[in-house]
UniProtKB/TrEMBL annotation:
Protein name: Rieske domain-containing protein
GO molecular function: 2 iron, 2 sulfur cluster binding; chlorophyllide a oxygenase activity; metal ion binding
Signal peptide: none
Compositionally biased spans, kind Polar residues: 58-70
Renumbered residue ranges of the record's region Disordered: 32-98
GO biological process: protein targeting to chloroplast
Alphabetically ordered keywords of this record: 2Fe-2S, Chloroplast, Iron, Iron-sulfur, Membrane, Metal-binding, Plastid, Transit peptide, Transmembrane, Transmembrane helix
Gene Ontology cellular component annotations, sorted alphabetically: chloroplast
PANTHER family (UniProt xref): IRON-SULFUR DOMAIN CONTAINING PROTEIN, PROTEIN TIC 55, CHLOROPLASTIC
């Protein structure tokens, strides 16, 4: 976890059947998409009587058992309301639900850091499991497509087999509505095989390559220009025109303050007013350290974690000088804004005279923590911690984290940025087990967080505010877990992740660029796949360490051999000392390589 406390930083195959006897049309009509509905505690019993949807869960309770942790606190200890987060509005106090207009697609989502976008390869990314591909065209302009080649996509797909004996048509639908008399079985089976092999694979453009600024699908070589139009089909006759339908869906992208943002809606034009802008990052002299981290838990869990300063002294004890378990203390929070777009307020230590930290959450997934102070020269200085938490899908997220300020200690200028990135990886690894387990519990229990969380006023105010905000807007998301309401995903995560995940993981061009080999399939529990492959600085440093390790090993062997061959004692000593220094360099390189490829392991100690 990264702390919000500011730290220092179609032409189909032309193969014909050998003996076509019948003419069939095999159609696959997509089923209407089910939409999940938010489940409200007071409406649940009525919903259960009228629906058997898997997303419905019993959120009501008997008269004798408290329905939530909050109810328990009211029933058993009347003083608990003094330490627990209570209702934040009169509507909530009366049990009424506030609902705001919201459509998750009509938002800007942070895709990547501009500096880390590959210059010579496409990059596959997701937003709520919607797959997109980002790349730079011949002019270096950023382009974003749906990560799916149109060669393998059709709204209604069919296979036709001409009947040479009887001039008639038969139809077989996947829903079983049309009849089939059992004749021409071979023709039907052949059609099904043709259908399966030529239509089912939806080739990913992110596994393609860039040729003269065009994105090429490596399955059949179709090429697309920046507006999504197909400009080359190698299998098309020379005098034939490319079908107009051979185009890719495009998404609008913008680069702002070093971050690439994507507008996910196809129904409306991009709303530039919603594009985030961060004042501190535009101040003169402001410098920041930025990194991308892919994480194995939901973005809502990630945001909660980043809003929780109280865990830092315990979970990150002595990760740096600002985190010590003996400094754990009650915190004070003051909410100053609540809107349909988020919330904001001040926070600080419980014994502080002022609240120095200002936190703001803004839809859909932007969290910032700012601090100001006057230095010894009387100049106001600004520090910011910015967390851009893209929802990549169920049980996974991608974070762009940026720490910066208008001033920094001189020693920071001498420390390479990759070192700060690796320290950041350690912070995430310290919380990863807790957060992954929490994600699993939410998916299994299928209840609002009110049933599970015990939110303290002195530590969890922001977490409660975030889940209550999701009560307002969660109906406009693919799924959500709010304080009082939930709406479950249409498909379970295992359907979204398998079976393609493992195969794709060993493919020739996954994850960002270059194969990883079958021995090292991508694993988001490993920091190499969580961060290094997404960072040009860290991946470059890792390559350098490997080169130096090999070179120093060879030099050490050569020096040792010379020491054996020479006769002079002084020469032997000098050569052996040099070989020892080279071996020390090999050890150092091995340690640095391990830092980029090995997770933090918590060592417990007795107090």
């Amino acid at each position: 976890m990264a702390s919000p406390i500011l730290k220092f930083p179609y032409l189909s195959h032309t193969t014909s059947l050998s003996n076509p006897l019948a003419f069939y049309t095999l159609s696959l009509t997509p089923k209407p998409r089910k939409t999940s509905r938010p489940i409200h505690v007071k409406q649940q019993r009525q919903q259960q009587r009228s629906s058997k949807c898997h997303a419905v869960t019993d959120l009501t309770s008997s008269n004798t058992v408290p329905s939530s942790i909050e109810d328990q606190s009211r029933g058993e200890d009347s003083d608990d309301h003094l330490v627990l987060v209570g209702p934040s509005s009169e509507e909530e106090r009366r049990g009424e639900r506030e609902v705001a207009d919201y459509d998750w697609t009509e938002e800007w989502y942070p895709l990547y850091l501009t500096k880390d976008v590959p210059d010579d390869a496409p990059l596959g990314l997701t937003v709520f499991d919607k797959q997109v591909v980002l790349y730079k065209d011949g002019q270096g302009e950023l382009r974003c497509f749906e990560d799916r080649c149109p060669h393998s996509v059709a709204c209604i797909m069919s296979v036709e087999i001409e009947n040479a004996n009887a001039n008639k048509q038969k139809s077989l639908n996947f829903d079983g509505s049309s009849a089939f008399d059992g004749k021409d079985l071979f023709a039907l089976c052949s059609a099904l095989m043709h259908y399966s092999y030529s239509k089912w694979p939806l080739a990913k453009l992110s596994e393609g390559q860039l040729i003269d600024g065009r994105l090429e699908c490596l399955y059949h070589g179709w090429q697309f220009e920046g507006e999504g139009n197909c400009v080359k089909i190698p299998q098309l006759p020379a005098n034939a025109k490319i079908p107009q339908s051979a185009c890719v869906r495009t998404y609008e992208v913008r680069e702002s303050q070093g971050v690439v943002w994507v507008w996910m809606s196809s129904k409306s034009q991009p709303n530039i007013n919603k594009l985030p802008w961060f004042e501190n990052f535009a101040r003169p002299g402001f410098k920041d350290s930025s990194a991308v981290h892919e994480l194995p838990y939901d973005h809502s869990i990630l945001l909660e974690n980043l809003m929780d300063p109280a865990h830092i002294p315990i979970s990150h004890d002595r990760t740096d000088l600002s985190a010590k378990r003996e400094n754990a203390q009650p915190l004070r929070f003051e909410v100053t804004e609540r809107t349909d777009r988020g919330f904001a307020g001040w926070w600080g230590g419980g014994d502080a005279q002022t609240l120095p930290n200002f936190l703001r959450f803004e839809a859909p997934c932007v969290l910032s923590n700012n601090r100001e102070f006057i230095d010894e020269k009387g100049v106001k200085q600004y520090f910011s911690g910015l967390f851009l938490c893209r929802p990549t899908g169920q049980g996974k997220s991608m974070l762009i984290v940026r720490f910066g300020g208008t001033t920094r200690p001189q020693i920071a200028n001498w420390i390479p940025e990759w070192f700060f990135h690796q320290r950041g990886c350690t912070v995430f690894e310290q919380d990863m087990g807790f957060l992954s387990s929490q994600n699993e519990v939410l998916m299994k229990e299928k209840v609002p967080t009110k049933k599970l969380y015990l939110n303290l006023r002195s530590s969890d105010t922001w977490v409660a505010e975030y889940r209550k905000w999701m009560d307002k807007v969660g109906h406009g998301m693919p799924y959500h877990f709010g304080h009082n309401t939930i709406s479950l995903p249409e498909l379970p995560a295992v359907v979204e992740h398998a079976p393609a995940g493992l195969v794709a993981g060993a493919s020739s061009s996954f994850p960002a660029k270059g194969g990883t080999g079958t021995m090292h399939a991508p694993n988001l529990a490993n920091r190499y796949f969580r961060h290094v492959i997404h960072c040009k600085g860290c991946s470059g440093a890792l390559k350098s360490f490997n080169v130096w390790k090999k070179a120093l090993s060879a030099i050490s062997l050569a020096l040792t051999a010379f020491a054996i061959l020479v006769s002079g004692r002084q020469w032997k000593a000098a050569l052996l000392v040099s070989a020892s220094l080279c071996l020390a360099g090999v050890y150092t390189c091995s340690t640095l390589i391990k830092m980029s490829t090995t997770n933090f392991i918590r060592t417990h100690r007795r107090f």
